[in-house]
Amino acid sequence: MNLGDLHPPKGSTKASKRKGRGKGSGLGKTAGRGHKGAGQRSGNKRRPWFEGGQMPLVRRLPKRGFSNHLFRKEFQILNLRDISDLKLKNIDPEVLLAKGKIKSLRKPVKILGIGEIETPINFKAHAFSQSAQEKIKKAGGTTEELC
Predict the structure, then answer these.
(1) How far apart are the first and last CA of the chain?
(2) Whole-angstrom Cα distance, residue 78 to residue 128?
(3) What CA dihedral angle connects 18, 23, 27 and 30, to 10 degrees?
């Protein structure tokens, strides 16, 4: 086998259209652009969603519903199992950032109840799940919500 013998599999390639190469090519003279108008001229860039002046689809359809994406609160989530290994008495977002458990102080922190804690820990966070609050209180700790 030589490099000169290599060729793509049959049917996998297709010859390109040779536009503007005479009548015999089937795409001579106007090269498939039609007669006159913006589409025939160079520099014509019609946006893909342009519908020729017809009322666009996005404006014909009614607006419905409501999206909450502008108002939702995004929390940094931590489970009790992620925190139980810290062995600290007081835990707040600054401590969690220093220990590498959260990425920044810009987003609020929410503590969730997956996992167990045995030692009493005083938590300060922006939100707590009900199960997390119950487990913390059961272990003898306290929860304080930051605003």
Answers:
(1) 74
(2) 10
(3) 120
pLDDT tens digits for range 35-93: 998 889 888 888 888 998 999 999 999 999 999 999 999 999 999 998 888 888 999 99
Burial 61-71 (b: 16+ CB within 10 A, else e): eeeeeeeeeee
Instruction: Please state whether beta strands 90-91 and 76-79 pair in parallel, antiparallel, or not at all (unpaired).
Output: unpaired
Q: For residue 138, which phi and psi values (nearest 5 degrees)?
A: -65, -35
Sign of the torsion formed by the C-alpha atoms of 84, 89, 93 and 98: negative
Query: Does the pTM of the predicted model rise above 0.70?
Result: no
Which tokens in the block code for residue 97? 């950032």
Q: Which domains does the chain have, with CATH numbers?
A: 76-145 (3.100.10.10)
Local structure of residue 38 (DSSP, 8 states): G
